Amino acid sequence: MDRNRTSQSQAVLNQEAAAVRTVVAAPARESRSLWSDARRRLLRNPVAMAGGAVVILLVLLAVAAPYVAPYDPIRQDLADSLAGPSLKHLAGTDIQGRDIFSRIIFGTRISLRIGFLGMLLGCVVGVILGLVAGYYGGWADAIIMRLMDVQLAFPGLLVAICIIAIIGPGLENVIVAVGIFSVPLFARVTRGQVLSLKEQEFIVAARMMGAQDGRIMLNHLMPNAVAPLLVLCTLRIATAILTAASLSFLGLGAQPPIPEWGAMLSDGRAYLAIAPHVATIPGLAILVTVLAFNLLGDGLRDALDPRLKA
Amino acid sequence: MLRYILRRLLSMTPILFGVSLVIFLILHLVPGDPARLVAGLDATQEDVKMIRSSLGLDRPLPVQYLSWLGNVFRGDLGRSTRTHRPVTQELGLTFPATVELTLCATVVAVLIGVLAGTIAAVRRNSIFDYSSMVVALLGVCTPSFWLGLMLMLVFAVKLDLLPTTGRGGLENLVLPAVTLGAGAAAIIARVTRSSMLEVLGMDYIRTAHAKGLAARAVVVRHAVKNALIPVITVIGLEFGYLLAGAVVTETVFAYPGVGWLLVEAIGFRDYPVIQGALLLLALQFALVNLVVDVLYAFVDPRISYG
Asked: What was the pLDDT predicted at A20?
C-alpha cells in the first residue's frame, strides 16, 4: 500500500518534471495555464474591463494629483464660499471657498492609500493566520479560528469603530482599523484553501522529500491559494474604502483639513439646503471608486473560477 | 429541536465570553490611566483615587474581569463619565429607538429585495431584470450616509414631505429605514434572484406547469417557498450589517439610538458608555443569529438538528 502510494507520488513528480522540461524546452508554445485562461476571460468581460479602466484612471489621478488639480486642495478663499459648480470651479467650492474638484482629485490619493494599505494589512495577517491554522490544525487551528469568531461576533463596521475607540481617531488609525476588520475573511479563505490542498499528492510529495513546513506553506500552498485571494483583495479594497469613508463621516477618521471624501461629505451636511453640491459630489466619488473595484473583483472571480459563475 | 437550540446556545457561550473579554480590555488597551478615563475629564485627584479603589483597578486583571463580568450580569454597566447617569439607563433610553429602526429597515429590505428578486427571476433577461440588477449593484456600492443625505435633500428639503431629523412618529422613520435598508435590499434581491432561478429550473416546477397550474400560482405557491430558504440566512447576516449600519444612519438623521450614543461617547471618550453600547449590539447580533439558525432548521426539514 505504502509502496504503491510512493510510486504514485513518484509518477506525479515525474510528470511534473516532464511538464517543467517541456515548458523550458518550448517556451514559444502558448501555455494554457489558469492565468492565461483567466486573462482571456477577463479581457472578454466588458463590465470588468470598464471597472479596471476606472481603477487605472483613479491610480493615475492619484499619482498626478498636483499636476491635474486646478487649485491647491487646502487653500481657502472665503470670498468665494459655497459657490456652485461653474467653469471657474468645476465642482463648486465648500464653506471655506476651497475648490471641491481639486479636493476630490487629492482625495483619490487618500482613499486609494487607505484601501490598499488596509487591504494589505488584513491580507498579510489573515493569510499567515489562515496558513498556520489550516496547515497545523489542532490547537493552533482551534485558537486562531475562535479568535476570528470573536471578531466576527461584532457586526460589520462595529469592529472598526471598536478599534478606533481604543487607538483614537485619525487617518493612520483608520488604516489599522480597516485592516484588522478584514483579517478574519482572509484567514477563513486561506484556511479553506489550505485544507483542500494539504492532502493532495504534490504536498505529500514535497513533505516526503523533506521540505520544511515554512517552505511547503510558502512555495507550494501559497501559489495555489493566490487566485481566490486575489479576488478577495480586490473586493476588500472596495470595502476598505467604503468603511474608511464611513468612519471619516462619523468624525472618527481623517481630520480637517485633509481632503478625505467621507469627511468632505460630512462637512457638506450643514449646508445641504443652500449648497447641496458640497455633500453630493464626494459621495459620487466614493460610489464610482467602490463600484469600479467591485466590478473588477467580480470580473476576476468569474475569470479565475468559471465554476462559480451563476 | 430543543436540544438543537440548547447546543447552539452552548456553542455561542465561549464566543460571547471572548466578546466580553475584548470589550472589558478596551479600557486597559487605551493609552492612559483607566481610573482617570472612567472618572472623566472633570474629575479631581480624589475622585480618581476613589474610582480606582471602588472599581478595583488596583487588583490583578483576571480578578477585575470577573468582577466586571459579575456586574454586567447584575445589570450594572457603570456610569457615564459625561452625564453621570447609569449606562443601563442611557442604553434603555436609546435601545428601543434602534430596535424600531433596524426592524423597519429589515421590513423595507425584505419587501423590496424579495419582490424585486422574484420578479427579476421570473422575467429573466427582461428590462426589469437588467435594471433591477443594476440598481442592486449600485445599492451595494452606495455609501449609506450619502444615500441618506440625498433622500433628505429630495424628500425633506426640496419636497418638504418628511422631517429631516429626530425621532417621533412613523414619518420620522421612513427616510432612516429606507437609507438603512437599501444596501440589504440590494443583497437580498440578488440572492433571491439566483435562488429563484435555480428553483424555477427544477422538475417539480415543470410538473406544476404541466398539470395546468396558473403561472402565478406556480411561483407563489411552489417556487417562492423553497427559494426563500437561502434568503433567510442572508437576512440573518444582513441584520448584523443593519445593526452596524444603524450607527451611521442614526448619525445622519440625528436619530437618538444606540449607534448615535456610541459615536457621541467615542467623541467624548466616555468609555463606560462605549463598552455598554458595544456589548449590547454584539449581544443582539448573537441572539438574532441564533434565532435565524433555529428558524432555518425549522423551515428546512432537511437540516438535521439532532
From this structure: 47
